[in-house]
Write a structure and sequence with these properties.
The chain contains twelve helices and 13 strands. By secondary structure, it is of the alpha/beta class. The strands form three sheets. A seven-stranded mixed beta sheet has the order 2-8-7-6-5-3-4, with helices on both faces. α10 runs parallel beside α12. The longest helix has 23 residues. The structure holds pyridoxal-5'-phosphate. The site of pyridoxal-5'-phosphate has 14 residues, from α4.
C-alpha cells in the first residue's frame, strides 16, 4: 500500500490538544493551520461566476490570459523579467504539484531530493511518492560531493519565516548548475515580507538571464484568499515546464476553467493583495507582542504567515500550555526534528480571535 510508505499524517496527533483548546469557555482560537479566514475579493468571485456556463474541457496549459497575467504579476510584484507565457503552468493549488513534482519529472529510486531542515511536510511526501531518497539540509556544505536530482527551497519559509538572501540564492543556483540539480523554489509566501524583502529564484539578481534548471512554485491560497479554489502555478525553465505540461495533459491534472478566470483577475489585483497584507501585518504585531510579553521568544519570522515561537521547552509542552488557554498551534516537530523546541503560530485568524488570544496570554 502506498500510504504505508508515507509518514503519519501529522495533524491527526493534534486531536488531543484540539479537544483541550475547544473546551475553553471563550472558545477555540485556532492558530494551528494556515487557512485563510478573510473574504474572497468580490471581483474574483464575479470572475469565477462569469464563466460558469462553459461546458467544454479547459486547457491544461490554462488560458493565454491567465499565463499573461502570471508573467505580468511576477514582473510587477517581484521584478522577474524574461519569463515567457508558455513557461507558465497552472496547478490545482500548489500542494498537489509539490506532492507529484518529483514523480512528474521522472525522479526515481536512485535519486536524492534535498529538502530544508525544517520544511512543509509535502516535500518529503513528494520524494517518497517518487520512490526517491530524502535528505534534510540547509547548507550546501552539508551535501558534500553529492549530486541530488532535485533541491527544494522555501523562502519565506514555512514554518520558520526565514528569508534567504540574494547571495545565498545565487550560491545555490550556481552550485546546482554545476551538478545538474533542479532547484525548485516554493514561493507561496513571497508577497508576505515584513522585516525582510523576499526574492524570487527567477529574479535576474539571482539567476542572471537564464532560468534553466529552475522552477518557482506559487499559490494564490494565501495571497488572494483562494485556498478553497485550489489555485496555483509553476513557472521558470521552459523545457521543464513543457515536460510537466506533457505529463499533466495525460494525467488530467487540469485547473477548472472558472478557477482559471478567478486567478487571472486575482493576479491583476494588487489593491486586494495590499489589503490582505495589512490584515496579516496587524495580526502579526498583536500576536508578536502578546507572545513576547509572556515568556516566548520569536525566532526568524521576518516574513511569511507564521511566528516561530519558543519557551525553551519541548514543542509539545508549549502546545499543551497554549491549549489550556484555548489556543491551538502546531508543534515544531511536524516540520522536522530540529523543530523540537518551537511551535508554529499562524496569523490566519480573525481580528476578534487574535485579540482573544492576546487577552488570554496576558
Ligand atoms: C510552504 C507551502 N507550500 C505549499 C503549500 C500549499 O498551498 P496550496 O496547496 O494551498 O497552494 C503550503 C500550504 O500551507 C505551504 O505552506
Amino acid at each position: 500500500m502506498t500510504s504505508a510508505t508515507l509518514p503519519d499524517f501529522p495533524w491527526d496527533s493534534l486531536a488531543g490538544a484540539g479537544q483541550t483548546a475547544r473546551a475553553h469557555p471563550g472558545g477555540l482560537v485556532d492558530l494551528s493551520v494556515g487557512t485563510p479566514v478573510d473574504p474572497v475579493p468580490e471581483a474574483v468571485r464575479n470572475a469565477l461566476a462569469s464563466v460558469s456556463d462553459i461546458p467544454g474541457y479547459p486547457a491544461t496549459h490554462g488560458t493565454p490570459e491567465l499565463r499573461a497575467a502570471v508573467v505580468e504579476a511576477l514582473r510587477r510584484r517581484h521584478g522577474v523579467v524574461g519569463l515567457v507565457p508558455d513557461a507558465v503552468l497552472p496547478t490545482i493549488g500548489s500542494k498537489e504539484l509539490v506532492a507529484w513534482l518529483p514523480r512528474l519529472l521522472g525522479v526515481g529510486a536512485n535519486d536524492t531530493v534535498v529538502i530544508p531542515e525544517l520544511a512543509y511536510p509535502t516535500y518529503e511526501v513528494g520524494a517518497l511518492l517518487a520512490g526517491a531518497g530524502v535528505l534534510r539540509a540547509d547548507s550546501l556544505f552539508a551535501l558534500g560531493p553529492q549530486r541530488p536530482r532535485l533541491l527544494w527551497l522555501n523562502s519565506p519559509s514555512n514554518p520558520t519565516g526565514r528569508v534567504l538572501g540574494v547571495e545565498h540564492l545565487r550560491k545555490v543556483v550556481s552550485w546546482a548548475r554545476e551538478r545538474g540539480t533542479i532547484v525548485v523554489s516554493d514561493e507561496c509566501y513571497l508577497t508576505l515580507g515584513w522585516d525582510a524583502e523576499p526574492v524570487s529564484i527567477l529574479h535576474p539578481d539571482v539567476c542572471g538571464d537564464r532560468m534553466d534548471g529552475l522552477l518557482a512554485v506559487h499559490s494564490l491560497s494565501k495571497s488572494a484568499n483562494l485556498a478553497s479554489y485550489r489555485a496555483g502555478f509553476v513557472t521558470g525553465d521552459p523545457r521543464l515546464i513543457a515536460e510537466l505540461l506533457a505529463v499533466r495533459k495525460h494525467a488530467g491534472m487540469i485547473v477548472p476553467r472558472p478557477v482559471q478566470e478567478a486567478m487571472t483577475v486575482a493576479l491583476a489585483d494588487d489593491a486586494a493583495l495590499a489589503t490582505q497584507r495589512e490584515r496579516y501585518a496587524r495580526r502579526r504585531l498583536v500576536l508578536t507582542k502578546a507572545l513576547q510579553d509572556n515568556g516566548f521568544r520569536i525566532d526568524h519570522s521576518e516574513a511569511g504567515l507564521y511566528l516561530w515561537a519558543t519557551r525553551d521547552e519541548t514543542d509539545w509542552q508549549t502546545v499543551n500550555w497554549l491549549a489550556e488557554r484555548g489556543i491551538l498551534v502546531a508543534p515544531g516537530t511536524f516540520y522536522g526534528p530540529s523543530g523540537s523546541q518551537h511551535v508554529r503560530v499562524a496569523l490566519t485568524a480573525t481580528d476578534e480571535r487574535v485579540a482573544a488570544a492576546a487577552e488570554r496570554l496576558a
